[in-house]
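Reopening this ticket.

The earlier resolution said the output was attached, but the attachment link was broken on my side. Pasting everything inline this time so it's all in one place.
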Amino acid sequence: MKTKNFLSKLHWQVALSLVLAVLIALVLKGVGLSESPLGKGFEEFCTFIGSLFMRMLSMIVVPLVATSVICGSMSLGRGRAFLRIGLKTIAFYMATGFIAILLALLLVNAIAPGDVPADVARKILGDAKFDTSTVNAGAGDIAGVLLRFFPPNIVEAASDNTQLLGLIIFAVIIGVFINTLPEKHAEFQRKFWTGFNMLFEKITNAIMRLLPIGVFGLVAPVFMRAGAEAVAPVVVFFITVSLALILHTVGSMSLVLFSVGINPIMHLKAMLPAILTAFSTSSSVATLPVTLECVENSAKVPKNISGFTIPLGATVNMNGSALYECVAVIFISQIYASAGGAAMGLGMQFLVVVLALLTSIGVAGIPSASLVAIVVIMGVAGIPAEAVGIIWMTDRILDMMRTSVNIYGDSCAAVWVAKTENCDVYPRNGKV
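Inline output:
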């Protein structure tokens, strides 16, 4: 019974699939069968499985992201006090998310985990090709990147992975302006988009049940080609993401709390139950009750504020996820550059920052949300989706870490908004 319960968890299925993929690939390579007809046939079969899974995931990306962003944007409401708190909360989440991504951008460029020998890079990538016209965009193309915010043809943008930024911006506009309609029509629109979002989440959940098979198909070919040489860059990638997450938590968020007179060490201790729950479940939504209890009982944040900021944060505040997406995409692009491709230019890196921020809002409510977001960003950057397989070795533990960062950010938003609304947060001992 315990074994059955153990294997019923998706993340353990993924972990088992990952271990099997690495072991089988290394054994075939170790005994010299990787270049034999058996080895080549196995590699081609795994590549087909991985490609099929990524195609299924890519199929649902556009409707899922569009409806999720619309639902997130229209959740602000219309009342003045409600709108004021809503705008403060959104501003907090966007600002801290932007800081997290810039920190990630700085570290991934400084550490350069994807800077590996050319032969190792080619083994990792195999036959995958990418569009150098988008990746090597330079500083002079930033204006062109900004123009992508508003595509002239939204239908064409929805059908072209390189123009998804325009679709996301359009979805934000729809969500915001739904709240300006007469209540009768606004309520109809809310129900309509919420229903569609639930439908696409259901479809995505069904596709994600195939994640263990997809992971096997994506990871096995990498180790068939590169063997143990593929481990070193992934370890450096893991260290880069971990360092960025830690610095954002103890650095950026502490400064934010200091700005409103809250002791960050005291707040971290108060939120420890929620952080540990998030680490063990890897789910912001599943941690909601614990987060609310910590914020309301320990920090004394009023329920009208915590009841809005925390649930909204579970959907739109994904600082850790956005940070991870940025590092992952640039890491993969660095491997391409090491293999002889074009390096990612400043303009494209700026676009990655924007997309990481927006997609972390759009797909936050589903399992393995970062995978969907990374696929979106890689498509815009001209990188084939199959290349995402290289990062799966460390994804489980990084998922636990970034979810903890997301939850801590939610709690920081709640106390920050409460302080700006002149509430008595951490009474008697909350001053620094």
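Reporter confirms the inline version is readable. The domain at 2-420 is CATH 1.10.3860 (Proton glutamate symport protein). DSSP finds 20 helices and no strands in the chain.
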